[in-house]
């Protein structure tokens, strides 16, 4: 039996505005939270001063070079590109009454360029950035005012791009707010759980309002959520480890539960009660939450383990998440454990739980690429990683999981989120720039470029 990908399966890649666009003060754009974190999206925030340098200020200059990059994506055969809209290009301070025309016009040009090559946009409304003005003035997502501002922003872009964008996402890796409050909800890193969960509640309400607006405005549009797929295994079969693993998986599945089912699950009510957390939920909030998403999107990079044994509880540091390493798995250059089968497990778990279509919108390998004397980049390690994961996607489809598509993370080298560095590369396309901002920004094709081109061209039949 030959396992295959379904007709209409979307193939492509995923980027984020704050990691590729640059032009951070061009076209009337306001300062975002990402602009205040030049040493990494998960780093400490700093006020900007004239003459400050941040690696993301230029990034890979996608703002000016996107026609070249879209053409390269088309050469690979992309049928979809996930990107985000920078909220501060549309509402520079976040609370303006009318959107910024220059920002809207930029995304018009971007989506028109994609349409030339029949590449569908998959657009995230908020990808690890928000207007800093909303934090200074109102306290970020800690304030209900931000819900109204986000709804205004969502309605503005739905209205403007309703004929060009049919696939939308609300908040990127929404569960990351638990680990990076400033990045996720605009709160100080030292905020307590009461403040963080109240801000998360406001964000979930805003997500519900965006879903309602999308369904009202975008004909034939679909809107999903976006989870960081932080799948955890028990380190042992001790019941205590199994129970603790279930509890920790629920901490991120909770976001999907609310966005799919439209209400808070009972286990979270106990979680709040046990910690004396009191969430202010209005009757209108409850109605807003009932506007549920059309599909589940998620990122998948690694899995981890959970144990209640303190002697065994030596945690690895993987990006912003601390997880006990699995002794049966290898790791990347950055200590992220490589677990292709975990993707199949996660897909089955999500589909069993929600019975909604899935979209894998981030998956990839960050590595240090070497440019050979002849200019070639032989990234066989990336090819192996992606091949092995896509084989597991195909297996999950055969299991009966409904999958809309796959967009690998960083099809072109970009600024990494966690450390704001170029040396951690994900792309099929190499960009000549280093961690200090030096380089020509010239693009070149890696070996994986031609591999992915063959995968898409064969509709996955070339996978091994």
Automatic annotation (TrEMBL):
Q: Which residues form the active site?
A: 362 (nucleophile)
Taxonomic lineage from the root: Bacteria, Pseudomonadati, Pseudomonadota, Gammaproteobacteria, Enterobacterales
Q: Which organism is it from?
A: Pantoea phytobeneficialis
Please give the Gene Ontology molecular function terms for this protein.
6-phospho-beta-glucosidase activity
Return the similarity comment.
Belongs to the glycosyl hydrolase 1 family.
The record, for InterPro entries, names: GH, GH_1_N_CS, Glyco_hydro_1, Glyco_hydro_1_AS
PANTHER family found in the cross-reference section: 6-PHOSPHO-BETA-GLUCOSIDASE ASCB-RELATED, GLYCOSYL HYDROLASE
Enzyme superclass (EC): hydrolase
Gene (UniProt)? ascB
* Name assigned to this protein: 6-phospho-beta-glucosidase
Q: Extract the signal peptide range.
A: none
UniProt EC number:
3.2.1.86
An example Gene Ontology CC term for this record: cytosol
Give a yes or no for keyword Hydrolase in this entry.
yes
What keywords tag this UniProt record? Glycosidase, Hydrolase
Q: What's a Pfam family this protein contains?
A: Glyco_hydro_1
One of the GO biological process terms: carbohydrate catabolic process
């Amino acid at each position: 039996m030959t396992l295959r990908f379904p007709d209409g399966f979307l193939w492509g890649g995923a980027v984020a505005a704050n990691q590729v666009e640059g032009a951070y003060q061009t076209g009337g754009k306001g300062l975002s939270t990402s602009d205040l974190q030049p040493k990494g999206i998960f780093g400490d925030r700093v006020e900007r001063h004239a003459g400050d340098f941040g690696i993301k200020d230029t990034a890979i200059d996608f703002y000016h070079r996107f026609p070249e990059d879209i053409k390269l994506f088309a050469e690979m055969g992309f049928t979809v590109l996930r990107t985000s809209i920078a909220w501060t290009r549309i509402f520079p301070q976040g609370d303006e009454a009318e959107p910024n025309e220059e920002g809207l016009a930029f995304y018009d040009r971007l989506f028109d360029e994609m349409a030339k090559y029949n590449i569908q946009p998959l657009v995230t409304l908020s990808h690890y950035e928000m207007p800093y003005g909303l934090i200074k003035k109102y306290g970020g997502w800690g304030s209900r005012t931000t819900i109204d501002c986000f709804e205004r922003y969502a309605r503005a872009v739905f209205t403007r791009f309703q004929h060009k964008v049919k696939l939308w996402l609300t908040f990127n890796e929404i569960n990351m707010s638990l680990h990076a409050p400033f990045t996720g909800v605009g709160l100080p890193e030292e905020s307590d759980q009461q403040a963080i969960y109240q801000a998360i509640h406001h964000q979930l309400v805003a997500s519900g309002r965006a879903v309602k607006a999308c369904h009202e405005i975008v004909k034939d549009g679909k809107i999903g959520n976006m989870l960081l797929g932080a799948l955890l295994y028990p380190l042992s079969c001790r019941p205590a480890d199994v129970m603790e693993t279930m509890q920790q998986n629920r901490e991120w599945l909770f976001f999907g539960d609310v966005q799919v089912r439209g209400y808070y699950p009972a286990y979270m009510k106990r979680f709040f009660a046990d910690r004396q957390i009191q969430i202010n939920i209005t009757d209108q909030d409850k109605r807003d939450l009932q506007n549920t998403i059309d599909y589940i999107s998620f990122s998948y990079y690694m899995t981890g383990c959970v144990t209640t044994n303190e002697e065994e509880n030596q945690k690895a540091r993987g990006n912003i998440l601390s997880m006990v390493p699995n002794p049966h798995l290898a790791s990347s250059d950055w200590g992220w454990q490589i677990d292709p089968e975990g993707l199949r497990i996660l897909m089955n778990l999500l589909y069993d739980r929600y019975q909604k279509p899935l979209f894998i919108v981030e998956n990839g390998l960050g590595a240090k690429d070497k440019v050979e004397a002849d200019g070639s980049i032989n990234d066989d390690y990336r090819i192996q990683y992606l091949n092995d994961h896509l084989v597991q996607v195909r297996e999950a489809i055969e299991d009966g999981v409904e999958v809309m598509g796959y967009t690998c993370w960083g099809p072109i080298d970009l600024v990494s989120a966690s450390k704001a560095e170029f040396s951690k590369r994900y792309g099929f396309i190499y960009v000549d720039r280093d961690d200090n901002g030096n380089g020509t920004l010239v693009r070149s094709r890696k070996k994986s470029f031609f591999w992915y081109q063959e995968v898409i061209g064969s509709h996955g039949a070339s996978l091994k």
